[in-house]
Amino acid sequence: MSATLSNNAPRILATPTAGEIAGEKTMLLAFWVTGFLALAVGIAIGVLQSSNYAGINLYPYLQPFLKSYYQGLTMHGVLNAYVFTFFTISGWLMYLPARELKLKPNMGLAWFTYALMLIGTLMAAYGMFDNSSSVLYTMYAPLKGSAWFYLGITLVVVASILPLFVVLEMRARWKRANPGQLTPLVTYMSATTLLMWLLAALGAGTEAVFLLDPWALGMTQTIDPLLARTLFWWTGHPIVYFWLMPGYVSIYALLPRQAGGKLISDPLARLAFLLLFVFSLPVGTHHQYTDPGISPVIKGIVTALTLSVAIPSLITAFTIALSLEYGGRRRGGKGLMGWWTALPWKDPSVAAQVLALVSFIFGGAGGIVNASWQLDNVVHNTLWIPAHFHLTVGTMTTLVFMGVSFWLLPHLTGRKLYSSKLALWSVWLWFLGLMTWGFAGHWAGMDGVPRRAWVSSLPHDQYMQLYGAVHPALIIVGIGGVIAALGAVLYYIVFFGTLFGQKDSKAMVEIPFTEYITSSEGSLLARVAEPLGLWTLITFVITLAVYIPVFWPMLTHPIHAPGFVLW
Ligand code: HAS
Ligand code: CU
């Protein structure tokens, strides 16, 4: 009898010692510094891309380092969209749950993740720098890259899955000690994000291991471009939520407190994450509305499913706007919008995240246009699409992480933020630069300016003949890029100024975990959302139901295309 009782009774878990926490901080710092270094290189190359559209061809001055616009574009996309995000997100999603649960993560696995990701990054970087792999970040076969590149990317993707096991193990340990209790919110969000990513990565993982790697190693001579693209987009859509959801962790679980308030509802946050998980997997083919070989019936179904993916972000918009309003009113804001001006705008971390949210209103609205099959035909493969993703991953994700770094770096290093003022300038310039870019890019896209085109290499009169009518928009694209780059310069002054700055005992700020107005206690919604294994299975079944009819004709009518190295 007593044995049964002691089995069910809550167990006391060993909390990590100060030395162990210091080790975890070093681990997270390694992930963030590596990620932000990659971003610095990516941003520098970004200025070349935006100048290209303004008609300024800087590539001739960069020989022999960058051979072509397409090499630059590949590096810009891979470093920013994969390397920066995967490093920062992997560290972030292991460290925060560890602090929330007050448990020690499996540090061996955490460091192994880092090492594998670094090796993969170096291999892929080699393949890009030697100009053997200018295949763009979407790796569209039959454009052919080197084995260094594909194998490197494969390792990076494999590494990015490992944090899931670190988080699930901590969650299981915590659940054994707290039987019947709901997973605390940050851990719930992290586990959901990483489970979503596990299923998402199956597409690109299969593409890499069965198509791209053997092809680049010379084991196969041809490739099926349609199959490769479809596998890529299996991952390529949900990857955008792998970029978004870790930012949402801060927006839901930390920002309300930083803004002086509380999160309105914990169960609604869980619902948003669960819906992002379930809805984002089956809709990858909305990137292929113009591809042949996919049934129009599927394209219609995917349009409807994609529109539903906006629902969790709309839930987020209302929940967070209300949480911010609550914070602003507690800080003395009066009247209809007084709460808005009463937000702590002088705090660069808050300013960055709120500005990121503002940009995401436009990024999200553009996404809803893309989601609609008919409207997408107008904007697909135009500059509209990069404009859309510079307001989502370029601003929403990146600016939130910049904002987080303003408290996280002092938290990790015990050093003072180098300059709050410079930090504020950097986030405003980044926001204004990318909003300018975004506005002009959408405009130029609607006028039919193609994306991924080395337009500045055309003779001037030909460039003007083709794009003269939309030249003002393209010049604004270039100006937006420069403003954002100035913001980045200030940002990195703050970043390195903090890393190498003064030690200050007060700098070691605590993680601003928020309180809730409505907690998940007694919430049916939170209970239904809790069994993550079941939700993973449900999502997988729905995804297969949508994808089996997509893949079937491709597998029964394979295409065999030889590879091309164009640039
Ligand atoms: Fe997207 C293409 C559809 C969101 C990234 N997307 C891309 C590409 C990237 C990307 C990188 O359906 C290009 C890929 C390539 O290279 O070809 N996208 C959507 C939809 C959403 C969406 C429906 N995208 C994102 C996010 C991304 C991202 C997030 C990165 C992080 N996207 C598409 C489609 C395409 C596409 C098609 C293919 C197009 C083509 O032709 O190739 C939705 O998830 C968006 C929902 C978002 C909202 C906004 C909610 C607003 C919030 C802010 C509230 C503000 C507050 C502040 C609280 C509905 C949460 C208070 C303010 C006050 C004023 C009170
Ligand atoms: Cu998508």
TrEMBL record:
It is a multi-pass membrane protein. PROSITE patterns: COX1, COX1_CUB. It comes from the Bacteria. One of its GO terms (cellular component) is membrane. Residues 24-499 form the Cytochrome oxidase subunit I profile domain. SUPFAM superfamilies: Cytochrome c oxidase subunit I-like. One of its GO terms (biological process) is aerobic respiration. Keywords: Electron transport, Heme, Iron, Membrane, Metal-binding, Respiratory chain, Transmembrane, Transmembrane helix, Transport. GO terms for molecular function: cytochrome-c oxidase activity; heme binding. It is found in: Membrane. Pfam families: COX1. The chain crosses the membrane at residues 29-49, 69-96, 108-127, 147-168, 188-211, 231-255, 267-285, 297-324, 350-369, 389-410, 422-444, 473-500, 532-552. Belongs to the heme-copper respiratory oxidase family. This is Cytochrome c oxidase subunit I. The lineage of its organism: Bacteria, Pseudomonadati, Pseudomonadota, Betaproteobacteria, Burkholderiales.
